[in-house]
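lol forgot to send this yesterday, sorry. struct tokens for the thing we talked abt
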């Protein structure tokens, strides 16, 4: 077992030395394989390590050169992670983004495949263009963020508005238990769903907030196959217009009247 771990570390060292640098010249020496890299001294690697990397499909080598294959970067990412995270990382599409959380700008690591919107981002039209416009995806992510900040997930069923009438003022679970951020987020969700309309707000909530897949939405709503993505795109485009309304070029309204004209008060 210790020998296998040692070899794995040697393979990681080898891949870190050559990955992303194209084809590098090699030279056989008594110590093993000497790899030359421009701007750095040559490094020696045991012949057995190089052969194992070739057998694993991580390295391609001929008599005079060596290069990392397309599988090498993924192997390196897994090797650099903690053992309990290595398997999970193979099934993620991780990305570091900047976002504002409770008024503070932070860098966070997200998994684009965690939400159904992550899969929709990869869908293409026949023309090759993205099926879901970036502004629609951004609107869906904003709705999800407000939904989470509003603490709506545990108690939400078919209605997006929090049911507070059954709570006594100041009682446990009532509005008094919510911070200002959560209350404001609930209001934004309510206004967003009102803007989208009753015909489309359901599919937006199902996918963006409850994170249901499109096939499940079609099954539960008894919609035709492949119709949910069209309805969702329409809903998210309406949501995007709500979050970022288009500004008219000229808001001024001029009216000319005859001499002595006085506007009437409505």
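and heres what i got for the seq, position by position
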């Amino acid at each position: 077992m210790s020998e296998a771990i040692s070899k794995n570390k040697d393979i990681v060292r080898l891949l870190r030395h050559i990955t992303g640098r194209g084809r590098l010249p090699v030279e056989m020496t008594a110590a093993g394989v000497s790899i030359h890299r421009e701007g750095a001294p040559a490094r020696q690697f045991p012949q057995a390590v190089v052969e194992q990397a070739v057998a694993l499909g991580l390295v391609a080598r001929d008599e005079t050169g060596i290069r990392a294959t397309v599988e090498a970067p993924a192997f390196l990412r897994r090797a650099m992670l903690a053992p309990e995270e290595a398997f999970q990382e193979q099934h993620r599409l991780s990305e570091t983004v900047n976002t504002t959380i409770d008024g503070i700008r932070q860098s966070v690591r997200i998994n684009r495949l965690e939400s159904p919107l992550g899969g929709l981002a990869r869908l293409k039209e026949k023309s090759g263009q993205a099926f879901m416009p970036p502004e629609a995806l951004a609107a869906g992510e904003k709705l999800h963020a407000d939904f989470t900040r509003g603490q709506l997930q545990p108690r939400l069923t078919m209605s997006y508005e929090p049911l507070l009438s059954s709570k006594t003022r100041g009682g446990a679970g009532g509005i008094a238990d919510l911070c200002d951020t959560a209350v404001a987020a609930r209001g934004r969700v309510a206004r967003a769903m009102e803007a989208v309309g009753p015909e489309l707000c359901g599919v937006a909530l199902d996918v963006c907030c409850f994170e249901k897949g499109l096939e499940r939405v079609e099954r539960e709503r008894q919609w035709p196959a492949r119709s949910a993505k069209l309805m969702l795109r329409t809903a998210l485009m309406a949501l995007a217009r709500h979050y970022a309304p288009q500004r008219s070029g000229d808001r001024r309204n001029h009216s000319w009247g005859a001499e002595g004209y006085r506007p009437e008060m409505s």
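Residues 100 and 106 are 6 Å apart (CA to CA). anyway ping me if u want another try
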